[in-house]
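Figure 2 data, in text form.
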Amino acid sequence: MTVARTICLGFLAVIAIGAILLMMPFSTSNGTWDNLIVALFTSTSAVCVTGLSVVDPGTYFSFWGQLFIALLAQIGGLGYMTTTTFLILLIGRKFDMRQKIAIQQALDRPGMSGSAQVIRSIIATTLIFEITGVFLLLPAFVPEHGWSKGLWLAIFHSINAWNNAGFSLFKDNLIGYQSSLLVVFTITMLIIFGGIGYQVILEMYLWLRVSAKRLVDRHRILKKTQPQVFTLDFKVATSTTLILLIIGTIAFFCIEIRNPETFGSLSLRDQILVAWFQSVTPRTAGFNTIDVGKMTTAGLFITIALMFIGASPGGTGGGMKTTTLRVLTSCTKAILHGKEEVLLYDRKIAITLILKAVGVLVGSVATVILATILISLTDPTLDFIQILFEVVSAFATVGLSTGITATISTAAKLILIVTMYVGRVGVLLLMSAVLGDPRPTRIHYPEENLLVG
């Protein structure tokens, strides 16, 4: 039982428990036993923080069913190892070296020291952002739905936004709040910070604390302190996220502005808000303030590209990850400039990271292609763009849909379930669980040239 197998089986166990709970009569609004496929699909979508749904969660499930969805999304966003380690800390037990290694691999940390402090920081950060999101959403939901329902709506949507899940209790998702600056700002900020990674948030917090201290003590005689040096992870994650958000907002605004079904009938202010929201949500939340199925083909392809890239490592989002994109683009830049080293912010990228990035890209593309082919065979009447959109949304754990999720065949739903699971645990981690840990070798083979490109 390797660490990779522990993580993969742990997610399967949580999905199974969630499916059983969602099948119970008290989880449905009509008080009857739920359909197995519906329960399994919903549980997988929640644990994999995807947000795809074959039913309307707001009307199909009771309060208990909605609560289970929120809890499953919370566990899925934190990760199986983070959740179990936190429970171990709560009961006062110390975890051994094996669990430290599991945390290191699950969170993609460079070392194993301070694992307990990292888990506590992750839980604290999660609670702070989610509680803040609840308080910010209350003024938008309470006046319209009352205190009890408004509070639950704020809690449910805050949890799903932070964990990049995308489940909504409204029939039209968040289309009814597309012009609400408060809702758009709160949801998008939760999505961005939830998907950017805990390490980035911690570095940002330390920088703000040091900056505030210097500002307060600027009139005092202080010892010279060295400026904070941001890690390469921080620089790559923040810069890539900012670039993608700006490019996405401009692209959606320019492409969809003439589409009367999406942007065309809105005011300029609302068009900017919707373009910003549509640029944020594919990374990888699944909320929507427009009817995605009515977008132009160009808009759908841009959304597919953003979904495939996804969020940053260490966060609650999925996808290929921003760091993978930067490593691959830096490799292309190095080749074009005739360099033999791949550099990022004056730092050399190790060959192992380059190989890992290539492996993630190849595995991700292969998974998407295979799932798209299989669904094309099970549901031949669907358009190709709809199938590709649905598959990428499932693999990147986004949750956006053109509206075909509920109407596809049972076989296609099972394919999407597997795709969501593969996208959540990661292609490389899943292959490591299947094949076992790699064995080091001292055998070296002669080098030879090969025509490429």
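Caption note: Strands lie at 343-344, 347-348.
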